[in-house]
Each structure stands twice: as structure tokens, then as C-alpha cells.
Design brief:
This protein is α+β, with helices and mostly antiparallel strands. It has five helices and 14 strands. Strand 2 and strand 3 form a beta hairpin.
Amino acid sequence: MIRAIKHIAIAVRDVDDAVRRYQALLGIREVARHRFEKARTNEAHFTVSGVQFQLCQSWDADGRFARHIAEHGDEGVHHVCYTVDDIEQALAAATARGATLKPCAACQVAARTSTPKAGLPSSRTSSPGWRRSSCRCTGRARGPTPARARCRPRSGGAMSQTRTAAGFVAIQPEGVYRTPSYVHALRAGQALYLAGQVARDEQGKIVAPGDAAAQARQVYRNIGRVLAAAGADFHHIVKMTTYLVDRADAAAVSEVRFESLGDHRPPHTGVIVAGLGSPELRVEVDVIAVVPAGPRARRRPREGQPAAR
């Protein structure tokens, strides 16, 4: 029923101190730090065994994470967020256990509050209360298993983002097969560089061997998910390259590109190659995009002008 844990949010008094403790305990090297003005929180995100941990500090005493600490008397797990295969089944299971479940219907995410335990996550719950995930969905989907549900991650706050030693942001989004040897995207400033995307589903299985058009649709589906994880979409692409093993597939693959990009026509290069990573693959696409600046991004002052305060 539960497909995966999306993230574990831990309420802490001081995020810098908490980062040091977790680095000493778990040997973490890559930590992404975020400051959310609207939520008035400082957060640090890191990934352990494929699960993202979020250390969350409220700016004010009445913030939700500060209230959680005051209520329970110590730092600890604020909520655990899961993806579920079927919302109706999750509802029934929660009800059978005396819990109330309030899922996000658009992306099928549920979260539950947990017992604090000295800054470490606990699998036990102080109460069976579940609460709604704080995702921001672009559309509404009906039914227990919406086929086209979408969720727009917060820019810079997706659970799959980690900061490299050089200061870049490495992105491994959910919904795209995991690769052990490289990340799917790397963000340097506002520039976003995507790895070549091929027709593999979430489990890494090649989709529609021999069908270039069907493979192209999977490729652009993967590209869309990687872009979304970075806070961008197809309209932010500034350069793309398509690799084909057969020139005869060019028209069908181009048609899928036009469908995916709409009226956006970024610079494009088409290359015919002898082969790709697997003999069953017929198309691969790599992309460069520019991630839009946040609404609160400050403009760089002109020469001779004082910086804004």
C-alpha cells in the first residue's frame, strides 16, 4: 500500500546545531540549506538510503515546528510523508486502526505525526492522527488513482536535491529511474544541465522496444519530471539535442517533441548515431534549461549603486 517514504520532517531548535549532530552521527557530507520566507523556517535537507530528511527550525515561537517542540517537550519527528498506491485503500486501513487520513488527492501523498525522540526519527506514533501533506499541486485530480496527477515541487526544496562539494545542486527526482553512476540533473546558479534521458520507466525497464514514438513520449515524460523537480518546465529549455539510431524515426520523434513543448521552439540539434546504451533504445534527448529566479530574488546592483537592504 505504501510505495515509499517521501521525507521525514524533524522539528529542531537550531538547524545549524542539528546539522552538526546528524553529520557526526550519520557521516553526512552533502546538506542543502533553504530559507522559506512564507513559512518563516530555516531548513536543512539531506538524503540517507534514498529517504530525505528535513531539519526544520521555525523563526518564531508560534511557528509550527517551535509549537511542536513546546508541545512534546523536545525535538523530534514532526511528520512522515508517504506516497501510496491507492488512496481509498489507505483511507480504509487508517480508519480500521482508528486513524483519520487526509491525503492530497492530486499527488497521493499522506503524512502522519510521530513521537519526538531526541532529534531522531521514531517509527512509533503518539497518536494515529494523519495530516495533509504540504505539497503545492498544479491541478486537481479525482478518483483514487489519478492517472495525470501532477505536483510542482518548491523550487530548491525538492526532496531529491542535494548540494555537491563544489556548491552545485544535484537533482535525483522521484518518478524517474535511479542511476547509480550519475545524477539526472545538476544546477549551477540558474543553469540546469540534464543527463541524456532515454525510454526507461521508474523501475529502469525499457519502454516499447522498437517503437520510437512511444519511447520519445517516455523520454519527454522523464524530462518533464526532472525539470519539475528543479522548479522549471519545458518552456525554460534553452538547448536540446536528440540522438537517433535510425533516420527514419526523425519525423515521429519530432512530432512528440512538438507535442511536449507546445509553442516553445528552443535551439535543437539532431544527431544520427550507431547505437545507444542498449540495443533496444531508439532515442535519447539531453537538455539545458534556465531555472526561473524566485519572486523574491534581488537584482544585482549596478556599478556604483548601493546594495538593497
